[in-house]
Every structure is written in structure tokens, then in C-alpha cells.
Amino acid sequence: MGWEILNGNKEGNEQGEWTYVRARGESSIDYGIVNEEAWEEIERFEVGEKMPVIMLIVVVIIVICFYFSFDSRKYPPGPWNLPLIGYLYKLDKKTPNLDLMQLAQKYGPIYTIKLGLTNTVVIAEAKLLKKVLLKDQVLARPPLLTFQMMFGEKGLTCCWPLHMWKNQRKFVADFLRTVGATKTATNKSTLEQLIRKSAENFVQDIHSRGDRTLLDPSEAVGNYVSTIVHTLLLGTSFSRDENTQIDLSSNIDDVSKMTFCSRLNFLPFAQFLPQYRKMKNVFKQTMEKIRHTQEKFVNTGVSNFSKNNTSLIDTFLTEMARNGSDEIYNAEQLKQLLFDLFAASTETTVHSIRWLLLYLARYQEVQSKVRRELLQVLQGKPPDTGDLAKLGYMKATIAEIARIRTLVPLGFPRYATEDFCVDNMTIKKDSLIIPLLWAIHMDPKVWEKLEEFSPDRFLDGEGKFCKHESLVPFQAGKRMCVGKHLANMMMFQFVATVLQKVKIECCGSDPVDFSYECGLSLLPKPQKLVFVKI
Ligand code: HEM
């Protein structure tokens, strides 16, 4: 038995307080003075009455707190993101590599940002990157719109599902081993001859223009690389007077500039805005041009098909003939595979060589040192892979180019297909993974005087080349660059052949322009250099 307060109003006079009260279980309402004693009873009763409700609320709060604290997993830290657009508003379209590097300085070597709605994990330390890229949970590529338009899920670069990627990765790796483009390949001589011949053609081209030629070398370097790549892929190289090749390379550059950081990838609603719709159309049209040109090359390759040839197209068509066109070995897959290999090899190697030429022109003492070493070691004979061990300074120079002008500055992204842990931190399923190679190669904790072009940093006390564990231009793990050795062979033969016959200088008093455009790869600005016959 007790009292219920109906209006809860404790107003009153000195004798007590007025309130409306009702005896429990009674319907009639009393109104009168309630003295202090009665109040205490009423309040005791009130508390007792509400006890189960209070208890329930407390239990619910405890359960909620427990539920949230139960997710005791630690996630990579990161900055505050705006709704819908995330951190995109703070990334400079031209230099996202620098903005992302700054965040690494603040939040550490692994951090999270949102790009649009996409949870993105950025990794800016080599050791950590290797740990992450070794995991099977990050073998996939992210489903970005521009990637889908450029690569789809066929070919190799963005190939998925897993069984298909594994099959095609093995197919390409076996092919590269057969032609001599892997570390363990035994029969390298045919490929070496092809690459050397192409480098000699570069020299001839330069010499044929005169003793001292002012030239933007992009086109000639493009010819050097694509002759090699086309011969490997199609069995024939294109005709030198065709402009098709140049158009193809410049179109690939154009899409590369738009590919990764494009707002199109992260703001799905942006596609409906006029500015982005236009961008999407330009991208689509450029891709159509590329595919049209590629089609011509593929048709030539198909019409020359022979089971006895060793080109990639012949090897693929042989496999297709053996299996009948199936889920993997079919015409669409062949076209995309050729596109991927062509784009991945030319885009990267051509720009690496262009950067190399710019640095050699600016740093004459490095150029002379590389040349002196070449003349001393080779003694006039053509260079081959066997000489590499004795060409430490040249290798160090190529490594320093890969560091100071990281060709794939934001790395080639991966995608987490499941939750996983690294260094006690959880990376969530569906996260985009950015291997921030630029920051890894420009980390002040790792590299001394990092802005300086200094091949010496890759030499030991005896002047021998030593690998540096923080130099990762090809990334790491099972999906790392499949063409690493081919790229190294092309770089090596180019430097070894060309530097013995040609001296590279800056154009008059014009300093070399080391600024860049940051797309999927790091593009140097077009500029002329002086090539002097030796
Ligand atoms: C300096 C030259 C090159 C650089 C810096 C470079 C860099 C890279 C990087 C960073 C990746 C991403 C790897 C990953 O996801 O972990 C990659 C993938 C790839 N690279 Fe290269 N690359 C170069 C030359 C080449 C060449 C010459 C080829 C020709 C065979 C090639 C073919 C590929 C292919 C097909 C992939 C995709 C592999 C896959 O997804 O399984 N690259 N490259």
C-alpha cells in the first residue's frame, strides 16, 4: 500500500506540501497537505515502483556498452572525413601522392581515409607493405569504374575471380620464362639480342640526325620499348613510319592520367553531373581508340598464327585450339591480355627511361661514371646479363631513378576480400588498399638526403651494388609485377648500349624540368635534350 503522486507538484505551505495523491489501488483522488513523513513514504514507494524499469534501463545500457566495446579490434587511425565525399576534398588532383604522404607523417605508416564512401587503407612503409601484400585476402583489385572501363575482369591486370587470375598469371609467367624474361630462365640470349638490336636502332636513329641533335626523346624511347614488347606479344613489330604506335602510347598516357584518382571512381553520383559525364565520355572514347588500334595489331598476330612460333599470341591460340574456346581461353580474354601486357610494359618502362635520360642530362658526373664503368667492364663487347654483376654503379643509378621518381606513385591498388589483421590492426573487408610507394621511397626515416639524386646510396663500402629492402617499385607478394625482369633487362640494355655511343646534355642553359603529372604512373613533362654522338 502506498501513494501515487498524480501531478508531482510539491508546492505547499509550512505545514506540508499540497499535492494530488491517490491511494494505491483506489480510484478516488485525494487532494491535501502531505507532510514530510508522508512524502518520504511516497518517494520510497515511487522508487520501489520504478525499480524494475530503472534496472531494465541500466541493463540495456550495459548491454549496449558491452556490445560496442566487444569489438575490441583496433583499426588504422586516420583523419576526419566529410560525409559522402570523405577525404577527397583535401586531395590535390595533380599531386595526391604528396597529400597522402603528409597524412602518413601525421598518422603513421598505416592509416585509413574515406575516398567517397570507400574505406581506404594507405600503407607507407616497405616492411608493412610486404606483410600486407603477402596475404591472400588482398589478391583482388578494387572495383573502380575506370578500372572496369580499362581492364574489366579479363586480361591479367585486374583479372578476377581468383581461379581465373591464377590460371592467367601462370600462363604469362610461363610464357615470360620460355622467352627468357625471368631471373631463372636459361635461354636469355634470343631476348637479349632482340633488346640489344632495338637499343642499337635507337642509337642509329639518334646518329642519323647528326652529331648533335636537339630532341624530345619520348617517341624514340617509345619505339625502343614497343618494338620489343610487340615482337614478344605478336611475333612482329609495327612499321616504324606508322603513327599508330605514337597515338597508342599517347592515348594510354591520357587514360593513365585519369585512371586512379579520378572522382569518377569514388563519387557514383558524380557520373550524372555534366562535368563528370564529359570526363567519362572522354575516357570511354580514348579507350575505344586504343582498342581499335590494338585490334589491328591482334588481327595481324592472328593471321600470322603458327604453332611453332613462340609469341604470346601464338602460345595463347595454341592453348585455345587445344581446349576449344572455354571460360578462360577465348578471344575476348586474348584481346584484354594483350592490352594489359602492352599497357603495363610500355607505360612504365618508357617513362622510366625518360626519367633516366633527364637525370643523366642534369647530373653529368653520374653519367660519366656510368659510362666509364661500362667501357671498363665491357671492353667494346656487347653487354649481356652476365656483365650485370660487374656493373654496380649502373645498377645503382637505375635503382636511384626508381626511388626518386617512383613510376607508380600510389602503387597499383588492391582490395580486401575478407577482414584480416596486420600488426594487431584490423583491415576491414571491402577496403581499398593503397600501397603508397611514393612515401616509401621518400621516407626521411629510411633515406638520407632524400631529395638528392645519389646512386651511391645503393653501394656498399667496396662500391658493390646492394639491394635496399625499402625500394619496392614493383610492389610485392604473389601479385607483384610479373614483368619485373623484362623491365630490368630493357633498362639495363638501354643504358649499356646507348651510353657507350651517345652523350646526353641539357638544352643550353635551360634546366631540366623534373616536375611531373601523377596519374597511374608518374609522367615527366615533354622536353628536349641534346644527344651528342661519341
Ligand atoms: C619500370 C617498369 C615497371 C614498373 C615500375 C612496374 C610496376 C608494376 C606494379 C607496381 C604493379 C602492381 C603489382 C601489385 O599489384 O602488387 C605491376 C603489375 C603488373 N605489371 Fe608491371 N611494372 C613495370 C614493367 C612491366 C613490364 C615490362 C611488364 C610486361 C610484362 C609488366 C606487366 C605487369 C602486369 C601484367 C601486371 C599485373 C600483374 C597481376 O595483376 O598479376 N610490368 N607492375
TrEMBL record:
InterPro entries: Cyt_P450, Cyt_P450_E_grp-I, Cyt_P450_sf, Cytochrome_P450_fam2. It is a peripheral membrane protein. The chain crosses the membrane at residues 53-70. One of its GO terms (biological process) is organic acid metabolic process. Keywords: Endoplasmic reticulum, Heme, Iron, Membrane, Metal-binding, Microsome, Monooxygenase, Oxidoreductase, Transmembrane, Transmembrane helix. Heme binds at C481. Coiled coil: none annotated. It is found in: Endoplasmic reticulum membrane; Microsome membrane. Belongs to the cytochrome P450 family. This is Cytochrome P450.
